[in-house]
Amino acid sequence: MQDVVRAFALAAAEAAHGTVYNVGSARQTTIREIVQLTRAALDIEAEPQWASTSQRSWDTKTWVSCTDRIRHDLQWEPRISLDEGLRTMTAWLRDADDEVARLYEAAHPDVSGKLAP
């Protein structure tokens, strides 16, 4: 999250209007890896139930963000690993749970009192 915010701030301050940048690690990450990291960050012991789907006609085996332009134009590169970012975000969400519920309820009075135990 911090890397993405930093990329947005750099682009807003320094990029030419309309320039498009890819923001990512430039490293392929599988769904299995993301699930493992998320389970660890959230202390989830349950094993996922994997199912396979048929290959989509437009699918490719490799999905990787190309960050060459943002690295060159804005000297941006990711500083935080996916694992560290997930753990930091999870800790923040746990700490901010009551505040997030309060802000949500303020914005959506129709659910007031239904989120917090």
Computed structural class: mainly alpha
CATH class: Alpha Beta
Strand content: under 5%
Fraction of residues in H or I helices? 40-55%
Quote the distance from N terminus to C terminus. 28 Å
Report the total helices.
5
Shape: extended
Model regions low in confidence, pLDDT < 50 over at least 5 residues? none
CATH architecture: Alpha-Beta Complex
What does this entry look like structurally?
With 117 residues, the protein is an all-alpha fold. The chain has a single domain (2-45, 63-111), classed as UDP-galactose 4-epimerase, domain 1 (Alpha-Beta Complex). The protein contains 5 helices and no strands. It has helices at 2-14, 31-41, 68-74, 82-95, 97-107. α2 (31-41) runs parallel beside α4 (82-95). It starts with a helix and ends in a 10-residue tail after the last helix.
Concise synopsis of the structure shown:
This protein is mainly α and 117 residues long. It contains five helices and no strands. The radius of gyration is 19 Å and the shape is extended.
Please render the helix and strand layout as text.
Blueprint: H1 2-14, H2 31-41, H3 68-74, H4 82-95, H5 97-107
